[in-house]
Design goal:
The protein is an all-alpha fold. It is built from eight helices and no strands. 25% of the residues are buried.
């Protein structure tokens, strides 16, 4: 038999701790970032909006899926959106989506800017999925490497190497767009 203080520690370690999630606060704080991530990942506003909505609804229905020892609530949500978009792509067996080429032709400067945006978006969408997701999380959403690793469920070193390779590919693709000026 263990002494009483030690028994209390052992018992306390075996009791699961439920973390109360403030879904409204999470939604208000992270919905825009999750939507941008989904849009950059899929190229479709409707698919991004649906994936984000489904992720929040799933978290509302099953808040117990959040385990603080595996990462933050934000990492969980980004991972959920990513997984929904990947599942949708697999189930539809779709090809890469066309980029949005809408531009304002009134100003040449605006047109050039829009062309660059389209080129960058196209270059990102043209990356293999495993590179695209680290670029979007680390560079566009400014996730730390650790948070990106948690959201994607991959090791930290894998995030770093994928990001490095993705940047190399993006540089080559954008160099082609600029006609070798980059």
């Amino acid at each position: 038999m263990l002494p009483r203080p030690l028994q209390a520690v052992v018992i306390a370690q075996t009791i699961p701790v439920e973390v109360a999630l403030d879904i409204r606060s999470l939604y208000a704080s992270y919905h825009p970032r999750l939507f941008r991530f989904g849009l950059a990942f899929s190229g479709s506003e409707s698919k991004a909006a649906e994936a984000v909505q489904d992720a929040f609804l799933d978290l509302i229905r099953n808040p117990g899926q959040f385990d603080p020892s595996r990462g933050t609530e934000v990492a969980l949500l980004f991972g959920m959106v990513r997984n929904r978009l990947r599942s949708a792509r697999r189930s539809e067996r779709e090809e890469p989506l066309d980029e949005d080429g809408a531009t304002d032709e009134e100003l040449l400067v605006h047109l050039e800017r829009e062309e660059r945006i389209v080129a960058v978006r196209g270059a990102i969408l043209g990356l293999p999925e495993h590179y695209r997701e680290v670029v979007v999380l680390c560079e566009m959403e400014e996730f730390s490497y650790e948070d990106a690793a948690a959201a994607l469920g991959i090791p930290l070193g894998t995030v770093r190497s994928r990001l490095n390779r993705a940047k190399q590919q993006l540089k080559m693709r954008l160099k082609e767009f600029e006609g070798g000026k980059v």
